[in-house]
Amino acid sequence: MLRRSLFAAAAAPAILSRPAGATDGPVVVELFTSQSCSSCPPADALLGDLAARQPGVLALSFHVTYWDRLGWRDRFSLPEATERQQRYARSLGHGQLYTPQIVVQGRRDAVGSDRSAVLGGIAAAAPAPVAIGLAITDQGLRIDLPEGAGGGTVWLIGYDARHVTRIGGGENGGRTLSYTNVVRSIAPVGAWQGRPSRLTAPRPGGEHIAVLLQGADGAILGAARS
């Protein structure tokens, strides 16, 4: 799989007005990885370090499917993760899929093991302009979005804090590897069009919950986590 030294920034996202009293949400860092990719373990370790040491970062590990045909099926791989990476390939403008890839705030990408590039991208990330309210109720989830300018899709993500897996084949065959904030489910649950709105949804699969508001250009406009 293509691996490259790149930190690309796409065109600037549309500017949205911040609602009164809004606070900055976490910077969203998405790693696209696979258990069969021999270049991925250092990126998996970096993501774990970010999750442990950077409280202002929401670090998520998306396991893609296209390595599954090469001797080992990643039990965390999701077609939705591959589709999400494909959308980023288009919105970031380079059209390429590679692992390990980290995408910061939906608008910049880097080789996932390149610590300096990833930390630089986090430091340069623009704050998300939309404050999202997330509450867990007896019926499921309640997601509140404020008034603002712009629009986007609301994504609901379920993830597990940590997994350790003995790899039985592929490029990492024989190794025991650990993974942090492994995404187990991702689905769109609604749209936001700049008006105050409330969405409800059942709890997703996974130990923890994240909600992302994402613009049509891929920019993360807001994020919240349980």
TrEMBL record:
Q: Where, by residue number, does the polypeptide cross the bilayer?
A: none
Q: Do the record's keywords include Cell division?
A: no
Its keywords, alphabetically, are: Signal
Using the record, list the residue span of the signal peptide; answer none if the entry has no such feature. Answer: 1-22
Protein name as it appears in the record? DUF1223 domain-containing protein
Lineage of producing organism: Bacteria, Pseudomonadati, Pseudomonadota, Alphaproteobacteria, Acetobacterales
